[in-house]
Write a structure and sequence with these properties.
By secondary structure, the protein is an alpha/beta fold. The chain is built from nine helices and eleven strands.
Length: about 280
């Protein structure tokens, strides 16, 4: 029958190997020297091999001891990781998350689902909408905010860069209408500001045909050929087509997506923040 290695015995062995002394190892382990010696003897008996060579000056590793040391370290690290992960999964808490409407409908829900699998006792309350004013309400209304900023600006943790893309219905040449009907979001939206500035700079006549906080509502209006709009490249709807300068549309800037954290985050909020950074930073553009 294969012997089972006791982690307490391995911990004692690693301490003696590191300190090259039973006395110093005993002090670190808060045990008596005789107790540590007995642990090493039990480990050697279980393995059927001498692990340490004792002299009056110091304690040295035998060939078997040197080989075991790397395995012992790995087993102790895995033990600590397993216990830490299981303890984390018992964390309870309530996290308030603010996010843009399209991210809240498309990108964030699957990330919250995978987070809930690992941390079922953490409740996440998500609010979607214009995020320009959300970072100022951190701590008061939000613990975390995923917000959009002009390229190269804004504080918080950088997650990804998005291109602003003009969009029209698949079978509707709406971009040829004069003046151009445009569906946009309310004042405070960065895309609304960029679209208006770009069209004005290009001296392209346009009119505001539709306004909504809902990206789904804007998408539906555009899909019917009633207006053009601006979407992020990462959440561009499949039932729309992208427009470029070849379609007579002026270029638009890029946007940075950043995660903002309130001061003094709870463990629950910190865990969610780490999860969002890890997942969104690697999400395909």
């Amino acid at each position: 029958m294969t012997p089972v290695l006791d982690l307490d015995l391995l911990k004692a062995f690693v301490a003696v190997a590191d300190q090259r002394s039973f006395t110093r190892a005993a002090a670190i382990l808060n045990r008596t020297q005789s107790a540590v010696s007995m642990q090493i003897k039990r480990l050697e008996d279980r393995l059927g091999a001498e692990l340490l060579s004792r002299t009056r000056v110091q304690v040295d590793l035998t060939a078997a001891g040197d080989e075991l040391l790397a395995f012992a370290r790995r087993m102790l690290v895995l033990n600590d990781e397993a216990i830490g992960r299981l303890r984390e999964h018992k964390v309870e808490g309530h996290v308030r998350l603010g996010v843009m409407d399209d991210y809240g409908a498309i990108l964030v829900p699957p990330l919250l689902a995978s987070f809930a699998t690992g941390y079922p006792r953490i409740r996440v309350e998500m609010e979607t909408g214009l995020t320009s004013a959300m970072p100022a309400r951190l701590g008061e209304a939000f613990d975390l905010v995923i917000a959009m900023h002009p390229e190269g600006s804004g504080d918080g943790t950088f997650l990804r860069r998005e291109r602003a893309v003009w969009a029209a219905g698949l079978s509707h040449p709406t971009e040829k209408i004069d003046p151009l009907p445009v569906a946009l979001y309310p004042h405070g939206c960065l895309f609304r500001k960029w679209a208006a500035e770009a069209l004005d700079a290009a001296k392209r006549p346009w009119r505001l045909a539709f306004v909504s906080h809902s990206s789904a509502a804007v998408e539906s209006i555009v899909a019917q050929g009633l207006a053009v709009t601006v979407f992020k490249s990462g959440t561009f709807p499949s039932r729309l087509r992208a427009l470029s300068d070849q379609d007579g549309m002026p270029p638009l800037p890029a946007a940075d997506i950043r995660l903002h954290r309130a001061a003094g985050l709870s463990q629950a909020a910190s865990l969610l923040a780490d999860h969002l950074v890890s997942e969104l930073s690697s999400w395909p553009a």
